[in-house]
Structure prediction request, 126 residues.
Amino acid sequence: MRKAGMDPAKFTVAPFEAGEAAPSIAAMFPSGARLEHTFAFDTLNGALSAIERIVDEDVAARISRQGGGKWVVVFDAPADPNVPGKGAHEQVAGRVSNLGGEDRGFSHLTMNVTKKETERRTDQQS
Prediction:
C-alpha cells in the first residue's frame, strides 16, 4: 500500500458479513472445467481491443503488465467437452490475431467453489 502512496494506518480490516464473499467468488471463479487463453500485446490499445472483442457473458479477462513492457491478457472461458482445448484456443487466437497479440498458449483448469457456512450457537455467551 505504501508503494501506491497510501497510508495503511488510514484503512481498517473488517470481516465479511455473512454471505458477503459468496457472490464475488462465484462471479470470479465459476465451478467447472475452464480454459485460459493467454496473449501478450505490445500496446495497451491492442490488449484492450482484444478484451473488447472477446469478453462476453461467459468469458472473463484479466490484464497485467510484464516487466518487458508487454501487456498480458488472459481470457477465462468455459471448456466445451465436445471441442478439444487446442481447437477452442485456435478460435480465440483467430479473433485477436490481427491486433498484434503474441500467442502464449492455453491452460485447462477445473474450478471447485465451495461455500462454507458456519452456524453460531445461541447458547454460548460472548
